[in-house]
Amino acid sequence: MIISTTPTLEGRPVRDYLGIVTGEVIVGANIFKDLFAGIRDIVGGRAGAYEGALRDARRQAYEELRFEAERMGADAVVGVDLDYEVVGQGGSMLMVSISGTAVKL
């Protein structure tokens, strides 16, 4: 499955547009991760716990997008857009959403 942010794929003409596909993941902030991230922010450096959680959420959202496209019989997803939003009471959760157009090449 080809997943691309571009609207077309060089040398691979789109034969059929199958529709919009999405993948969404919402992850809650863990109190221990918050504590250690706060300490790291004071001392300096990167917040590895948050980076790991963000990486996992992004991977899961891509997997959902790919699964939905495969279910529709797509060969690729073009025009992909990836967004991050803080949601929940007091911004306690992070939402990763990805969308694109499933196509048959």
From TrEMBL:
Superkingdom, natural source: Bacteria
One Pfam family this sequence matches: YbjQ_1
UniProt cross-references to InterPro entries, sorted A to Z: UPF0145_dom_sf (IPR035439), UPF0145_YbjQ-like (IPR002765)
SUPFAM superfamilies linked: YbjQ-like
Family as reported in the entry's similarity comment: Belongs to the UPF0145 family.
The protein's name in its UniProt record: UPF0145 protein FPZ08_09025
Organism: Devosia ginsengisoli
